[in-house]
Write a structure and sequence with these properties.
It holds the Pfam family zf-MYND. InterPro entries: PDCD2_C, Znf_MYND. Keywords: Metal-binding, Zinc, Zinc-finger. GO terms for molecular function: zinc ion binding. The protein has about 350 residues and is an alpha+beta fold. It has one domain. Helices cover about 15% and strands about 20% of the residues. The chain has six helices and twelve strands. The strands form two sheets. The protein has a ten-stranded antiparallel barrel with strand order 1-8-2-3-4-5-12-11-10-9. β6 and β7 form a beta hairpin. It is globular.
Length: about 350
Amino acid sequence: MEKRVDLGFVEDIDDLYLFKLKSKYFPSKVGGKPSWLSLTHLPSSEQLKCELCSHPLILLLQIYCPIDDLSTAFHRTIFIFCCVQPNCGGGFKVFRSQLKRFNAFYDSEPPDYEAVEEKLDYDPKPENFGVKLCSVCGCFADKICSACKEVTYCSREHQKFDWKQNGHKELCGRATSNGASSALLKEFELVIETENGSEDNRQKDNVKTEAQRMQECIDFINQRKPSCQDENFDEYENNCIKDDIYDNFRRKTKQNADQVIRYYSYDRKNDFFDPLWINNEKPATIPNCENCGSQRKIECQIMPQLLYFVGGADKSVDFGTLLIYSCIESCDAKDENIAYLKEYVFIQNFKQ
């Protein structure tokens, strides 16, 4: 298998084509509510709590990444969730879901990706299988509004948010809350291109605008890298090493400065891929898969440029880079009631 790096870029999607971010189109996307792959046995509310502050996590991004020669992973998606609470912003969790070609949810033939209108008579979603979703974040819901008995939630926090800030106080008993929520990150389509020549392949309606956006991403990252002048003298030598690593990171990403994800394609059972580090603080060990005991290796890397697109005054999510390690066997859960297996994320931060 040829080693290859694929890059992910965010793209705005026209409201007319938002239906293509639904589960039945197996999307890769940033923000919004999850487009679940398996439509039953979703991660529990407890699983999607931040381990630092206990608040509910929301979707950061999901990437569709099937494995061609593995029948049990004909469909496969990695979901990355994050905490956006002020003074936290450090909670991240990763889940992997996969399905065979012939499954209980989707047609065995691929969807029509060129469609300009949605096929309304075919809309598989968790609700069709008796699963309740949180009105705010779209995750598994095990709570319900005690007044109207209609709207469901994943947590007390999101129930309060919906009541006070999302309009349910006025709508309760008369209508359900709308699908949009200011609690979520802005939604984008995630477009994947091969690293070599990706600039030539990407469609640019406005070259100047694209160049400006790339420069803004470069400036954004440079602003996040602390100056050596801010460090103590006794840390100088260590910082020089870190700066060499960071300079390599900057060189490798300069050509495609607005990349938000790096996906590593290689023979993960027999080969190795070194991701792009931003400093020399690397994981001492990578835990093996808790489900089957196999080794985990790097699968993809979330880049700090993503923060330029999803960040905001009311969203406190922060990282240098997120390194996603997954089971090299891409195993199925031993328990048939589990459809989402937790994987490992290592967080590198810019030193503040």
